[in-house]
Design a protein that fits this description.
By secondary structure, this protein is mainly α. About 50% of the residues lie in helices and about 10% in strands. The chain contains 4 helices and 9 strands, in the order E-E-H-E-E-E-E-H-H-H-E-E-E. The chain has a 3-stranded antiparallel sheet. Strands 5-4-6 form a 3-stranded antiparallel sheet. A hairpin with a 5-residue loop joins strand 8 and strand 9.
């Protein structure tokens, strides 16, 4: 079907017919359209811009070859006036133009509702993104804060352990230093007696020398070298710590998955939902949406 060619106003027959009356099926210029809308019988007529109009022939009844002007509400079929007394006798009818207006209105309402729903979904998603980003930042801060606390405790514990090691090792080292001083004193005493022994060996041998040697022997016998104790040792036992142990110390986080998308189909008394994951079906009444 082609777009309508340029038409002339069918009322004044002088100006271009830029408007098309759907009810009268006639072309009107701007002025004649205003006059047409002011008349009592045609004030509610629907107009369409002529350049948007797609031309097509009027629908005819296949049986009676007359124009289809009625819609059978029982059969939902388009009929002519002669069909009313035929097989559609006793049925209820509506003017096709009224049905078209009603259907167009319903479509417009649904489009608006769907548009509002889509806009609301976009707003909800954007709000959720902002909220989620804020939550992520809060979790990251909490992890950093908890990690900082643990680092601080580790540093404090390490410093305390090092201090204890130094204090306790100093006590043991002092004992070793005292033992060293005593051993050095014992060695000095031995060297002193050894020098006496050397000097006596150079002395003239007589009765006095015997007495001196006996005295030296008594001093040598009094020498006592202390036995060495068990020396102190220090070692470190490393405790095995895995990365998972550290994570458990810091804490855990949880991210819930997005809820499954529900496929929605409108029903007469509600909306039909089908879960994209499990396939479960459910009808939610319109009033509960």
């Amino acid at each position: 079907m082609a777009q309508a060619a340029s038409k002339t106003c069918e009322v004044c027959v002088s100006a271009p017919g830029s408007h098309y009356c759907i009810d009268c099926e006639e072309y009107y210029c701007g002025n004649c359209k205003l006059l047409h809308n002011r008349q009592k019988l045609s004030k509610n007529h629907q107009f369409q811009k002529a350049f948007e109009l797609i031309t097509e022939g009027k629908s005819k009844c296949n049986e009676h070859k007359e124009e289809l002007t009625l819609n059978c509400n029982i059969c939902n079929a388009q009929i002519c006036t002669r069909c009313v007394t035929g097989k559609h006798n006793g049925h209820t009818f509506s003017q096709i133009v009224d049905v078209i207006v009603q259907l167009q209105g319903e479509n417009e309402t649904k489009i608006h509702a769907t548009t509002n729903e889509a806009n609301q979904n976009i707003q909800n998603i954007e709000d959720s993104l902002i909220s989620f980003d804020n939550s992520v930042e809060s979790v990251i801060k909490a992890i950093n804060d908890e990690g900082g606390k643990i680092k601080s405790m580790v540093d404090k514990t390490v410093a305390q352990m090092i201090t204890l090691v130094k204090e306790q090792s100093k006590k043991e080292k002092d004992k070793l230093m005292n033992m060293l001083a005593n051993a050095q004193s014992e060695l000095v005493a031995v060297h002193t007696l050894d020098r006496k022994r050397t000097e006596l060996a150079k002395t003239r041998q007589d009765g006095n020398l015997v007495q001196k040697i006996n005295n030296l022997k008594e001093e040598i016998d009094k020498l006592h070298i202390n036995s060495l104790p068990k020396f102190p040792k220090i070692s470190f036992s490393r405790k095995s710590v895995a990365e998972d142990d550290i994570r458990q110390m810091i804490g855990t986080y949880n991210i819930s998955n997005c809820a499954p998308v529900l496929g929605k189909k409108e029903q007469r008394h509600g909306y039909f939902y089908k879960c994209s994951d499990c396939g479960r079906e459910k009808i939610i009444p319109v009033g509960d949406m």
